[in-house]
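Need residues for this backbone.
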């Protein structure tokens, strides 16, 4: 919801459902890369499960924040 509110306030009309869909899509891509890094061939269900896991999402946020702070 917060993402949708921020984007809307910046002139990009976005409702909560659309923001969530975009967010999960990005998380799925990152989860797939993460799962394939060890040579695995994950199923769509495995990718979706990891992408929706709050711990995975939090770890991605932490990595991104650390990256921003180091630049």
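Answer:
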């Amino acid at each position: 919801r917060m993402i949708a509110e921020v984007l809307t306030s910046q002139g990009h009309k976005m409702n909560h459902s659309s923001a969530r869909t975009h967010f999960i899509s990005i998380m799925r891509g990152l989860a797939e890369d993460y799962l394939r890094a060890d040579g695995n061939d994950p199923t769509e269900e495995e990718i979706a499960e990891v992408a929706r896991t709050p711990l995975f999402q939090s770890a991605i946020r932490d990595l991104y924040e650390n990256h921003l702070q180091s630049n």
